[in-house]
Amino acid sequence: MQNVIAINEAGRQGIIAARATTDDMLLASIAAGDRTAMHTLYARHNVRVYRFILRMLRDPATAEDLVSQVFLDVWRTARQFEGRAQVSTWLLSIARFKALTALRQRQYEDIDQDDVLEIADGADTPEAALDRSRTSDILRACIAKLSPAHREIINLVYYHEKSVEEVGRIVGIPQSTVKTRMFYARKQLAELLKGHGVETMAA
Predict the structure, then answer these.
(1) CA distance 62 to 59
(2) What family is this protein classified in (predicted)?
(3) Torsion-angle region of residue 174: left (phi > 0), alpha (psi -120 to 50) or beta?
(4) Which of 71, 132, 177, 196 could be cross-linked to 173 through a Cys-Cys bond (beta carbons 3.0 to 4.6 Å apart)?
(5) Do 94 and 70 meet the contact criterion of CB atoms below 8 Å apart?
């Protein structure tokens, strides 16, 4: 019984230690060849990277393959990370590059992302919560009508909660361009939503 308690306590301490380890610390350990740190980073970010790629490709199998490629690149190039952006931003930059490459290989200049994004608004009113399903359907339909560039900005800012600076790093454009695209994306989205009678989300 004592052995079981000791094992459980060791496991609990391990979990606490993992949570206290920052992404930057993990990446430094990965650069030194620490496989445990690689597993921890993967467990922490693989779902987010997968969903990001899936929203671009709409192909689960390819998205899974690309996630593996992203983290393989991380393992190989961890020493090149300079810490000028968050690790999560760096991961999404790699993921975006691979997803765009996959799109080019499929010879798609544009794809219709019917379900590109579901924006979860923690400040929803009770009325909006009651009609969440209908609103989500309308939102997906409206976002699908945005240009690829505007959809990408909406995805990164709202779904991945990235700052203007981080979006600029991921997409490879100036912050001023990010702000401009965000302005026009929100304006167009508001007009589309208003056309469907969704005034609160259009505000």
Answers:
(1) 6
(2) Belongs to the sigma-70 factor family. ECF subfamily.
(3) beta
(4) 177
(5) yes
What are 111's two structure tokens? 């794809």
d(CA 170, CA 51): 16
- Backbone φ and ψ for 119, nearest 5 degrees, come out as -90, 120
- Dig out the tokens for 106 from the structure: 């499929």
**Secondary structure (3-state) at 202:** helix
- Identify whether the C-beta of residue 17 lies closer than 8 Å to the C-beta of residue 30: no
121 and 183 Cβ atoms separated by less than 8 Å: no
What is the pTM assigned to this prediction?
Answer: 0.59
166-169 contacts at long range (C-beta below 8 A, 24 or more positions apart): 166/85, 166/86, 166/89, 169/84, 169/85, 169/89, 169/93
Lookup: tokens for 84: 């000028």
Q: Which tens digits make up the pLDDT trace of 120-151?
A: 444 444 444 445 567 777 887 888 888 888 88
Structure tokens at 166: 């981080």
